[in-house]
Amino acid sequence: MAPAATTNGVTDGVNGSNGLSGHTTSTKLQFETYHNIINNELTTTAKTRHGINPATIQPLPEVPVSTQEDVDRAVTCARAAYKSWSKVPIDERGQKLRDYADILDDHKDEFAKLLTQEQGKPLAQSYVEFGMATTWLRAVSTMEIPEDLIEDTEDRRVVCRYMPLGVTCGIVPWNFPILLAIGKVGPALYTGNTIIIKPSPYTPYCNLKLVELGMQIFPPGVLQALSGEEDLGPMFTAHPDIDKISFTGSIATGKKVMAAAAPTLKRVTLELGGNDPAIICEDVDIDAIIPKLAISSFLCSSQICMMVKRLYVHESIYRKFLDSFAAHIRCTMNVGSGLDPDNFIGPVQNRMQYDKVRHLYAQISPQGWHPVVGGDVPPADPTGKGFYFTPTLLDNPPDDSEVVTEEPFGPILPVLKWRDEEEVLARANDSKMGLGASVWSNDLERAERLARRLEAGSVWVNSHFDVSPIIPFGGHKWSGIGTEWGLNGLKSYCNPQSLWLKKKKSV
């Protein structure tokens, strides 16, 4: 992860800088009521709904249920704002992002607590996610988007420049709602676009407050947010005056987004599901890597597309590795409310996901899978109990098992034996998904050789789930189209233009 950029003060006095500290101060938000943000106005709707705290299954505050009329108004305001925002110099837009990061930092405690309440992850993990978001803003705000010099002859100079697209929409998932919203907001605004954020219906609260706070920094119509039900996303993907959809979510929904965007030829960036393999070679230091692998497998209750989902361990160390991994989980992976600092694994986020993950746990006995740790099937009705699962390791299930071929998105991990490099590479690549993968070995030349043969958008050696705002992130195969973050991610919010410049006056 890149270090946070240093802020250099505020260019616009109305944003609350004291002119001395270089830190933009803000008006404190209240976190009791929640609204749509359209054209820097707080609005609501005739119909409202509420989310659920997954740790308690208790209702959270009411939020708007947006209509087509709300979408149309927001898009109209975004289009009007684009005309002036796109003309603001990029350095000034970058300063606005740094100002935004400053005022977000003033609310980090409120956001972290709210994130744990609506998403379920432990509070310490919520603080990490929040910190990553402000790091992303500051890093993006200082990146350069150079014009590419393609040809320079006596007769002419040809450059490729990058122009903003217009109105964009960020469709945000429920697993990392703060980081993945900001990961769309920063690049969109920095490149001169306007953006409307559509939160997941399961986790609307942080996203609405992120954008409400943005009212103190950005002009009307530049950054907006609408909450709603399952029909809201299709309103955005079909809208004729939106130029790009940036979607993070499931493969099935990503296909629908792509199909819906086709009639209006919207640009799309799709970051979809993963079934990440990790290959453990026989020369590793088992005790050293197990804590890293445990985090890379079970962080956020394994509800991260880039978590390790298939763990391939060389047969010569398999039993020792499996026993040590199971012991580590028993000692360190406490399950319970995210507000208890002793817990590492909170609930899965929603009832839909609870039922999907429970389906896998319920197959353990009938399928003859062998849990080394965990494996308890939770109740079909979690009312009053929360959406909890015990972290589970499965001992060498068949390669065609559902728990191996599909993305569980819950804390159940198949551990699989391998003997031959060609065999394990073939098994690791035998998936429609290709988001991330990793190789673990003390022989770095061997590890790199194996890593270069893995079919995934991000491949790590002796780590997993490293991300950075300056490094492109995207999937191969069914795990996505395009990239977020890095220079490639910035360019995805732009139209390239080839500019042919004659060096001599016409005769």
Describe the overall structure.
The chain has 507 residues and is an alpha/beta fold. The protein has 15 helices and 22 strands. The protein has a seven-stranded mixed beta sheet with strand order 14-15-16-13-12-18-19, sandwiched between helices. A six-stranded mixed beta sheet has the order 9-8-7-10-11-21, with helices on both faces. Helix 3 packs across helix 4 (123-140). The chain starts with 35 loop residues before the first strand and ends in a 5-residue tail after the last strand.
Features:
507 residues, alpha/beta, seven-stranded mixed sheet, six-stranded mixed sheet, 15 helices, 35% helix, disordered N terminus
Poorly predicted parts: 1-21
- What level of helicity do the residues show? 25-40%
Question: If you compute it from the alpha carbons, what radius of gyration comes out, rounded to the nearest whole angstrom?
Answer: 24 Å
**Number of helical segments with 4 or more residues:** 15
The proportion of strand residues reads: 15-25%
Average pLDDT rating: 94
Number of separate strands: 22
Distance between the termini: 54 Å
Largest sheet: 7 strands, mixed
Summing up helix and strand content along with how strands pair, one would put the structural category as alpha/beta
The strands making up the biggest β-sheet line up spatially as: 14-15-16-13-12-18-19
Shape: globular
